Amino acid sequence: MSRGRGFSIKILDKSDDSISILFKNIPVEIINSIRRISMSEVPTLAIDKVFIFRNDSVLNDQMLAHRLGLIPLKTPVDKYKYGDEEGKPEYVSLSLTIEAKNDFRTVYAKDIKSNDKEVYPLYEDIEIVRLAPGEGLDIEMWAIMGTGREHAKWSPVTVCVVRGVPVIKILKECDSNCKKCVEACPKNILKINNGKLTVTNLYLCTGCKLCEVECPDYIKVDIDEKSSLFMMEIVGQLTIKTILTKSFDILISKIDDFLTKFNEVEIYEDAIPK
Amino acid sequence: MRRLDIKKYLVSKPLEYDTWPVVEAMIREFGLAKQHIDSYNEFIEKGIKEIIEENKIIKIIAPNDEIIYEITDVRVDRPRIKDVDGSPLDEERGYIPAVCRLRGLTYAAPIIATIKRKQGGFEYIEDNVEIGHIPVMVKSKICVLHGKSKEELIRYGEDPNDPGGYFIINGSERAIVALEDLASNSIITRVEKVSNTKVYISMILSVKGSLRNHVTVTVKKNNIYVTIPFTLTPIPFPIVMKALGVVKEGEIAEAVSRREEIIEELYPVLKKYESVSTQEDALLYIGNRTQAAQQPIERRKNRARHILDKYLFPHVGIGPEYRLRKAYLLAEMVRRAIELKLGWRNPDDRDHYANKRLRLAGPLLGQIFAKSLKSLLKDLHYNITKYYLYKSRIQLSYLVRSSKITHRFNHALATGTWTQRTTGVTQMLDRTNYLSTLSHLRRIQSPLSRSRPQFEAREVHASHLGRICPVESPEGQNIGLVKNLALSAIVSNEYPPDKIYGILMEEGMVKVEEADDRLWESGARVFLNGDFIGFVSDPMTFVERLRGYRRRGLIPPDISIAVRNYNKDKLVPEVYIETSSARILRPLIRVVDGKPLLTHEHIRRVAEGKLKFTDLLKIGVIELIDANEEYNVLTAFFPEELTKDHTHLELSPFLFLGITASVIPFAEHNQSPRNSYEAAMAKQALGIPYTNIRLRMDTRGHLLEYPQMPIVQTRVMDLIGLNDRPVGQNLVVAIMSYESYNMEDAVVINKAAVDRGLFRSFFYKTYESTARLHGGGVSDRFEKPGEDVKNYIGEDAYRSLEEDGLPYLEAKLEKGDVVIGKTGPPRFLVEYEEAGLTEQKRDYSTTLDQFTGVVDRVVLTLDKEGQLTALVKIREHRVPELGDKVASRHGQKGVVGLLAPPEDMPYTADGIIPDLLINPHAFPSRMTVGQFLESIAGKYGALAGRFVDGTPFISYDYEDLGKLLKSMGFEPMGTEVMYDGRTGKKFKADIFVGIVYYQKLHHMVADKMHARARGPVQILTRQPTEGRSRDGGLRIGDMEKDVFVAYGASSIIKERLLDASDRTTIFVCTKCGLEGYYDARNRKLVCPVHGPDAPLVPVNVSYAFKLLLDELKSMAIYPRIYVEEVI
Amino acid sequence: MITPVRCFTCGSVIGDKYEKFIKLVEEGMDPKEALDKLGVKRYCCRRMLLTHVEIIDEFLIYRGLKYGKD
């Protein structure tokens, strides 16, 4: 297969927090690299240092800090320092000061005040802790950039899937009275229209082959290894586009690094055995 | 508490006849720790009075006066003690369980007596004499928590779900473990082999109040002996009968039996003792064989009378009027032994639960009370006599040493030692989680020795069904001896037998004394609580009519009415009526003509709360059956099995399981030992043990951060309140191998899941230190020790302390840091001398012995001696790590083998990355099919927003679950197509994924990790210490040594066993072979025999060897070492 | 104790959904429909909401020891 020939990218479905793309004739390894990088190597902001001045709540400091860390923060692209970048601020300072006066009070993520307007908790209604009357919190937090490899709180995606595209072949026209294969499919993909077996929503098929087991003579399910279905659902710190482009950037820079390293190695002609 | 209502959203298999509401009502009414509380209440109300009744009189005979003191009344007051300053401490002032736990107090109540004094015809009454303190069982009738509402309990600092039923002794919670005893007052026969001849024994343990006496009848080849208490030798049977007033040989024989075969056996024995012909002679015969043998004849006879009237069968009655009844009971014992000899009767099964009773809190405390009361009265007698001499009139309350009783109780409950033989009666209440607490309170211990095999006693007996859990028992030496009550077990309470007696007479029973020949020949014998009281001619109708009374609620439901030996050739039927306490009963639905009497209508009304479980007992729809009555019963397990012959139906098929066993879903699909393993492991799972954790300062405790209710439930779980105090989390589990990181029972856990809070927990440990008062105004002091203090361990270690010697909250501590700073005067004389001053202070600080920790809470309090005590609770955050132990609910335990990065782990088509990967090899040989079913059911439940009922025997099967799962759009067999996270490629096989409830067990690496390079040695042997807590070495044992021997690595052996252990250099005199020493003053080596100029050579030996030489020398043995140059 | 912020398995935020979920269910909605309505699709996230026990409320109500007559 020559480079670039015959490949195609088709966006099957898209929303604010999820996307599914069909890649045709692109090696699954590349798509999987994107999946892996987007999960664990795209940096985002998350609360990492927590200074607790007051915590009367029933949750212990460690648990409270852990919960704060897991709150997703909107991350402005390339604004904060990650790794050895220079000239960027290192952290965002956030604070949470609250006291339950006369009644029980639930502390939500929206109660967190941020020093940077661009950095804020994405989900306002996340419950952090509940306070009894008279209890209070006084907490300062630093959010820093990090990756999912270090801690899952920095991961910008929730689920990310790369899988083969199923190919359902109907080998023979069959007697429409038998609905065995239709009933066998847990996703209800197969339908009988006008006495003809048809596949309604191919991309729902996981390739479980239950229909094939039921009528092996009539139906055959294969997985197209050359194409892959890419599905991603994000938490929201970064947009889907940023995550994907960042992932590609990281992949490319990795390959670049590799190439540079490779070029540095001298290969002697006479090292090859005669 | 906010959570989903499980009952409302539980998917259960529809049952034609679902008795669940009745089961629920039963357990709600009878409670889970109820046996102990009931038993304790009974003791407080009745038992204590009965014991006083036995010893209540002190008679003092003065030269011309006689004074009689009599305890006329006794009662237990509300919990109250004297505080350290002498002021009374009661509920108002904070004498409540929560404070007792914190201050290390004993939660006790005063026993108050009214004492009457009779002197010279006058009577004086002294009220309110405190004779001692009895520990109060939490939530018993006299406990301050009794009958409190949920809100009130919370104000008292208690977890509203706490079951109670334990004591608080010196601040620690102690649970009484019920003892399993052989039934008292019933005849038990057995065959014994004594030097090749068989002897036939029938035995009875007669108990009344605190009197416990064994009577044994031994039928030998040509004699019959009776062992009577307080006689030196066994007494021949005819003599005892004659002493009891049955003098004629013919009468004796007739009392035993009218059957020729038996009389034939009896004849030679009777013949032998014809010479003792009168009652007086017989009494003398017995009197001669007592301690009174040396005394005048009349004294001897009186002694014999006393023994017969009081110590022979006290349960029949105390006094001469019962002699005839006792004679008949003795004859009955003889008859059974002879029938055994003739082979008509089988020996009684000692393991049958009809012959077992439980000894619960009440009788156990009674035992202590009776003993301590005796010693108190003895002491009182002495004191009164002493004061009488002074002629002073002194108030009794000053003479009563109430500490006698108080100390006995406290000591017994604090250590668990009842008598010298019975130890371990109380144990520290297991508070690992809610389930372990409940299970601990329902535990039963058999007093049999654990070192002997005793296979029969350890086996599950058929009569355990519905009474003792067949699953829950520990492995190892205690197997089968430590048991647990089944869910359906109900422990009987005592009912006065005289109330039954009238009914028996009404129903046609004839008293033994009035029975005619016909009844003696063929009538059924009636035993009321082991007392042979009469005959009936038609036992079957008699028994049915009696049961009628019970079924109409006229007599309590826990009375057992049973017929034995009915229609048996040669044997006469026996009717047993038991009203005694501590029998284990179980509820069964009555069946008439193959139809259960418990109708759908009943069940509906119970569910609506219009009918109580006890009402069902009163109308005879459900009966409580004990193991003896079960002989007369034919029970069907399932309603489908009912036939015309059945008399009863099981209330619910899973009720024979105990508390921990019934939390296993689909338990009937597992191999049985796996359920036993899980029953043991569920007690080690972390969860929420109690909600008042912030108010408690327990020495150790765990708390799971995010506990969840299992999706796959059993009905029992919700009933016992486990869903309010859960013990695990629902994990997405895939069954597949992962790069060998999960082989041999390891599991791979998703690191991202751990990052997000999976299985995170807290570990709490409390460090305690008391500032002791040494007397003379000297005491320890809590402070931050300065450098001038002896044993100062460096500034850094004290960095978390504030001036008062206590650490500030949330201070981070590390191993070796001081948790509580305390100084005090040096304790040993040597230290005084060394210091040269007496003013010198010494450091007595407490240091942290775990790796890390954060100060959670600090409490300063006065202990029971009025000394200042500091409690510092340390908290440690435990994030799951490599080596932590987890287990599913099917006995599938494993350690974490890898925290795998999520991107490397397999994912499903939906993108779900499992939380946990378990190796498929864990299943074929263990056959825990229940886990597969749970997995499928769990996945379905999550998708359908439902909880799934996995109650054993009445839940969905595999096919149904598969259909349900498929309806949610997943493969019915629970498998899914999965992809390898590293390559993105599909796995060839479909992987079984589902949701399984997993528990984090309290064996964690952080508690066990240990290594040592150098460290402390034992003082005596100079060998490295043992054990992690003492920073000990790792032992090269016999087996390890063999490895090196086999390998020929002799230098390693020498290094590990000598150089790295207790090598020492001694100097041996080559002339005499004895060890010399170094004279430091003259700088010379000296031989003890040959003096300073002897040829001494250094030799490297083990210090333990040197010790051996010293010991030999101390025993005047001359150990000689020959030294030789080798190279 | 209190609702976890994220689903353990997939990491999607559920910390803001438990209050809504339990409210819907208490209003009489079927848990399944309530979960669907809140957009909780996968079984991993669904079990988080379904099986959660909000024990924090039971911990909160202890306001020190108040015994005897007030």
Task: Please identify the top-level CATH class of the domain at 30-173 and 363-401 in chain B.
Answer: Alpha Beta
Instruction: Specify the overall morphology of chain C.
Output: flat
Task: Please give the share of residues in helix of chain C.
Answer: 40-55%
- Which structural class do you get from the secondary structure elements of chain C? mainly alpha
The termini of chain C sit apart by: 31 Å
- The CA-CA distance between the termini of chain B, in Å, is 83 Å
CATH architectural name of chain C: Orthogonal Bundle
CATH topology of the domain at 30-173 and 363-401 in chain B: Rna Polymerase Beta Subunit, Chain: C,domain 2
The CATH superfamily of chain C turns out to be Homeodomain-like
CATH class of chain C: Mainly Alpha
Calculate the mean pLDDT score of chain B and round it. 90
Q: How does the major sheet of chain C shape up? A: none
CATH architecture of the domain at 30-173 and 363-401 in chain B: Alpha-Beta Complex
Estimate percent helicity of chain B: 25-40%
Give the SSE order of chain C as H and E letters. Answer: HHHH
Per the principal axes of the C-alpha atoms, what is the gross shape of chain B?
A: globular
Low-confidence stretches of chain C: none
Descriptive notes:
The complex is a heterotrimer of chains A (274), B (1127) and C (70). Chain A is α+β, with helices and mostly antiparallel strands and 274 residues long. Chain A folds into two domains: 8-41 and 158-232, RNA polymerase, RBP11-like subunit (Gyrase A, domain 2, 2-Layer Sandwich), CATH 3.30.1360; 44-154, DNA-directed RNA polymerase, insert domain (RNA Polymerase Alpha Subunit, Chain A, domain 2, Beta Complex). Chain A has five helices and twelve strands. Chain A has helices at residues 28-40, 61-70, 180-184, 210-214, 240-264, and strands spanning 8-14, 18-24, 44-55, 91-99, 105-108, 113-114, 127-131, 136-146, 157-170, 190-193, 196-199, 219-234. In chain A, the strands form four sheets. Chain A has a four-stranded antiparallel sheet. A four-stranded antiparallel sheet of chain A has the order 3-8-4-6. The two termini of chain A are 32 Å apart. The model of chain A has no long low-confidence stretch (mean pLDDT 89). Chain B is of the alpha+beta class. In chain B, the strands form 15 sheets. In chain B, strands 20, 26, 27, 28, 29 and 30 form a six-stranded mixed sheet that branches. Chain B has a six-stranded mixed β-barrel with strand order 33-49-34-47-46-53. In chain B, 47% of the residues are buried. Chain C is an all-alpha fold and 70 residues long. Chain C has one domain: Orthogonal Bundle (Arc Repressor Mutant, subunit A), CATH 1.10.10.60. In chain C, 41% of the residues lie in helices and 0% in strands. Chain C has helices spanning 18-26, 31-37, 43-50, 56-60.
